[in-house]
Amino acid sequence: MRTQTKLSEQSGNRVQVALIGCNHNTAPLELRERVVFTSEQAMYAADELRKRGILEEAVVLSTCNRSELYGVPGETGGSTAEAMENYFISFHKIPPKELDGRLYRWMGTDAVRHLFRVAAGLDSMLLGEAEILGQLRGAYSQALDHGSTGPVLNRIFQGAIEVGKRVRAETEVGARPMSVALAGVKLAERVFGNLKGHSALIVGAGAVAEQVVEHLRNRGIGSLRVVNRSYEHAAELARKMGGDAVEWESLDAIVGVPDILVASVGGTGAVLTREMLDRAIAARHGRPVFVVDLGVPRNVAADAAGLYNLYLYNIEDLGEVVEQNRKARESEIPRAEALISEHLAKFEAWRTALEAASIVDDLRDHFQKHREMVIREKLGELKDVSPEERARIAHITEELIERVLARPSQRLQHGRGLRGRLAGIEALRHLFGLEEKKD
Amino acid sequence: MAHHLGSLSVALYGISLLCYARNLYSPHLCLGRLASGLLAGGILLQYFDLLERSRWTHSVPYNDLHGSMSLFAWLLGITYLGLEIFHRQRSVGAFVTLLLVVWMALLGLLAPPEVPTPPPARGVLFALHVTLNTWAYAAFALSFVLSLIYLVQDRLLRSRRLGSPFWRFPALDVLDRMARSSVYVGLGALILGVVMGLIWQHRLSGGYSWSDPKVIVTLAILAAYVAYLWLSRSATWRGARAALFCAVNFVVVLFSYTVVNLYFTKFHRFF
To answer: ipTM higher than 0.95?
Structure first.
């Protein structure tokens, strides 16, 4: 099976993180639907991966756009990522061929970077979307409560949540609306501020209008009226959204009441003429009106845009706003990546400190074994050495090991430069064959 | 000592400006609070600076250019902070503190802090008259800033060129309400100040000098701002036109504060 593999898989580090999964970039929707984990399945899968010794720690992150397994490799030997992939395939009972090239596989720092990018919304279908951070937090909390996480995954998931928060607070990646419906509502907020206590009239019952209504409801719009050529449709939408339906014939009479007008009548020309809107503004004593025209062809006469205190945005204008926002979000990616790198450096520093402590322990064990072996072999040949002298020799050799290890230990923990310290650890493991011993 | 307090207050205004600007770019409650706290700190230090000056002169520090400008800045800061708390809106803080910093820098350039000579004793009524009128000017300056932001925001909304700052500015409705509140404060202070001045003058001379250019311009300002408040509620002027009218009114205030004070009036020339 072909997979996107990234280096450092066999680096032999003690603090290792593995990730396999697929997302909207690698798998189509029909495949993503089949590899979703429910929360119960996520807990079960995390348990199984640990029971089978594939992972020591595990978190399953499953949303509509991604299914990912994060873990710390266990003591099974062989390729952890491969074992994770096999489990993933067998869990969802999907023929391996169907996942050919659809799964990605990251190890070590690359896996952590991927998680941080996911939390920041940089790996989302809608750049900078906010929901993913909540979903990630939910997946981690569930795993934490279930006991499937440990020090490594706790560290990286907490780091990811912090990255997600910082990226949204310190950059524009998550700011600005990215849908036509939300852009319309956000623009209305630029005129009226808080929408509580304000009123809206929905003319027509198109799908985008429904989305606008939903956003208006979420923002606590004071009153909502729906008017449609078919009163039944108006009544249905009004019932669904908690508003009032109005007869189509009353449109002219009530158009001066609301602060926000959303027009979404299909297949007709201008439903709201300049004269109607002029009368509406006069009836409102000049108070501003925000008009969202979602109709194609346009439902609001184009010359109405020139009316004083009327702010008119049609579907094309809103599309342009969304496009501007998308570009603005994209221009913020380097700043978000810089924040991710900053947090990765913190993770690396933490990993190095752990590594440094573990390598010294491994070296001590290594030397102790050799010391015991040498003492056994060499002192066994010397019959005239008394037990006191044997004990003294043992003590001296132990002290020798401690003295030899003192300086490397200090340098590995407090030496200059993360890169140098990591290289030193790798070199020591390699020189003394410690990774072979672990495997 | 007073000089140091003045410099320290400017430093706090400067840091507050940075925090407000940062908060405008990426809003954060703690940062916003810090900005407001720093502004309040600057206002407090400037109060002690002004207090020190008034101890030297035994009068409200209006009699020299430095004292007068410093008093204006202090009242501007206090009025803004009051509006910020009342309207729970920090996003214009960056513009107001910028104005404060520029004003204080101008003050340092045009009128270095020297020990002022005490003015002739004129009593409490007179001191209140000057202080209240300066407060009115400060409040009108604030309404000017808010009206300008309104006009920019309105223009951006109409032209559909929605850059980064657009999404950070307060809503038109909020700006409108803040500008009106500011004008209410200014008008209240101006009316009280004028009344105090008239009473003081009547006590002194038994009459009123209505022909003094300063009095005429002040009454014109009063009429212009009353007209603004009325027009800002009318069907045809509400919104951008009223904001423009408010901004233009401030030009008259500036004219009164500078040209009239320095060149036209003899009666109201203090420095």
So the answer is: no
| Highest-scoring range by mean pLDDT, A239-243, A385-389, B195-199 | B195-199
Can you give the pLDDT at residue A422? 63
User: Which comes out higher in pLDDT, residue A107 or B28?
Assistant: A107
H-state helical runs in A255-386: 274-283, 315-331, 333-381
**Options 3.40.50.1980, 3.30.460.30, 1.10.10.10, 3.40.190.120; which CATH number does A4-174+339-347 get?**
3.30.460.30
Please enumerate in sequence order all residues whose Cβ is within 8 A of that of A361, keeping only pairs 6 or more positions apart, or say none: none
Domain(s) labelled CATH 3.40.50.720 in chain A stretch across: 180-328
Per-residue pLDDT tens over the stretch A13-56:
467 899 999 999 999 988 998 999 999 999 999 999 999 989 99
Instruction: Spell out which residues of chain B touch residue A192, defining contact as CB-CB under 8 Å.
Output: 171-173
The residues of chain A that CATH labels 3.30.460.30 are 4-174+339-347
Structure tokens belonging to residue A420: 């140098």
Fold of A180-328: Rossmann fold (3.40.50)
Going by pLDDT thresholds of 50, 70 and 90, the confidence category of residue A438 is: very low
A64 part of the active site? yes
**What is the pTM assigned to this prediction?**
0.71
In angstroms, the CA B137 to CA B221 distance is 10
- Answer whether B26 sits within 8 Å of A170, measured CB to CB: yes
* Interchain proximity A288–B160, CB inside 8 Å: no
**Which residues of chain A have a Cβ shorter than 8 Å from any chain B Cβ?**
169-172, 175-176, 186-187, 189-193, 281-282, 285-288, 308-309, 311, 313, 317, 320-321, 324, 328
Would you call A192 and B172 a contact, using CB atoms and an 8 Å cutoff?
Answer: yes
| Pairing assessment for the beta strands A199-203 and A223-227 based on DSSP bridges | parallel
Q: Who among B153, B158, B234 is closest to A286 (CB)?
A: B234
State CA B222 to chain mean position distance. 15
